Amino acid sequence: MTERGESVTKLLISVAVALLVAGPASGKHAFLWTADTGMIDLGILGQIGPTSFSEARAINDRGHGVGRSSIAPPGGPVHTFLWTADTGMIDLGTLGGSTSVTAINDRGDAVGTSATASGDLHAFVWTAETGMIDLGTLGADGSSHAGGSNELGQVVGASSF
């Protein structure tokens, strides 16, 4: 919950039921809820179909949300998105494979993990100025995950080596 009273949730029980019944994607859409507007459907990045999905993961104090969304038919890649009231849902790109976002700071920088073209998992930071940047790993054969960032642009996470 942010200082403005907004809430983003994954609806864990619904997701668990959907996983049991229809797999990880079952027509679920990310939402933003406020006391003024109630629940707003944030949409999806790709084709709308019975297995398309999106889910919100984090929100900042400016009301900007981040999450992940299907972009293609079943089995296709999953991309992270940034949603604002002004722009709607924007695809943040990829490092070569599916992506998952963890957090967004009040500057609008998003962090998370992306598969590279070779299938390795690397932490990333996305900014409007630079796009998605691969943060690498602590070792040549390692993987990494970004967990959060602050208003100075510093990123925390974990890396194997």
What can you tell me about this protein's structure?
With 161 residues, this protein is mostly beta strands. It has a single domain, classed as Methylamine Dehydrogenase, Chain H. The chain contains 1 helix and 12 strands; from the N terminus they run H-E-E-E-E-E-E-E-E-E-E-E-E. The chain has one helix at 12-22; strands at 30-34, 38-43, 54-59, 65-70, 78-84, 88-91, 96-104, 110-116, 121-127, 131-134, 144-149, 155-159. A 4-stranded antiparallel β-sheet has the order 3-4-5-6, with no helix packed on it. It is globular.
Named CATH topology: Methylamine Dehydrogenase, Chain H
Provide the structure class: mainly beta
Low-confidence stretches: 6-25
Helices and strands, in order, run as: HEEEEEEEEEEEE
Beta-strand percentage range: 35-45%
Q: Characterize the overall form.
A: globular
Roughly how many Å apart are the termini?
Answer: 34 Å
How much helix, percentage-wise, in residues? Answer: under 10%
Strand order across the largest sheet: 3-4-5-6
Kindly state the number of beta strands.
12
Radius of gyration: 16 Å
How confident is the prediction overall: mean pLDDT?
Answer: 84
**CATH superfamily (homologous) name:** Peptidase/esterase 'gauge' domain
The largest pleated sheet is described as: 4 strands, antiparallel
Q: How many distinct folded domains?
A: 1
Query: In DSSP terms, counting alpha (H) and pi (I) runs of 4 or more, how many helices?
Result: 1
Shape-level CATH architecture? 7 Propeller
